[in-house]
Amino acid sequence: MAAGAPPERPQPALTPPARRSPGFLSKMAASSGRSGRRLWAALVPAALLCLAARAAEEPSTAEFDVRPGGEVHSFSRSLGDYTCTFTYSAQGGTNEQWQMNIGVSEDNLLFSCSVWRPQGKSYLFFTQFKAEVKGAKIEYAMAYSQAAVGGQSDVPLKQEEFEITETTVSHREGKFRFELSKLMIVAKTPRDEL
């Protein structure tokens, strides 16, 4: 070893000597005629399909307008076999921008759905609301009159204001106080029941 030269790093013991040569990658990448082009022509679309399928399973956030006027409106998002639908009726004010986020855990055992107003507090007067999941059963759910933003904290609705079933979270008639800014649902997927 020459003075001042960096010490040689030993190659991993499991790497065959042929793969240590500088031209190995260029040899592997070089086309081997017609059969090589056919192989690449088959591999590239297959790889793109795999990436597209994987992207479809990534968490998804979508924006939508909550519109006052007393009419019943719905917004839905799906991810694989699971769907979350938010249905509501509201009065007063103008449209508010809300978001829905859906995701599936890495082990595919949980599906989550969150619906909220990113600005924290809604100024609309909700006469009804319901969030429903399809393809999974609710394990945990909570509704909030204010969502955490900046220095503010989440303010949960009183338990008497809403009800939870296997697949829905909804207002409780006569008990709900018309304030809603956030809903959260975590549901078990059927894979967990195997």
Determine the N-to-C terminus distance.
Answer: 61 Å
Helix percent reads 10-25%
Number of helices: 3
Radius of gyration equals 26 Å
Uncertain regions spanning at least 5 consecutive residues: 9-56
The geometry reads as: globular
Strand content: 35-45%
Structure description:
Helix content is 18%, strand content 39%. It has three helices and eleven strands; from the N terminus they run αααβββββββββββ. The chain has a six-stranded antiparallel beta sheet with strand order 1-4-5-11-7-8, with no helix packed on it. A five-stranded antiparallel beta sheet has the order 2-3-6-10-9, with no helix packed on it. The longest helix is centred in the first third of the chain and has 24 residues, at 33-56. The radius of gyration is 26 Å and the shape is globular.
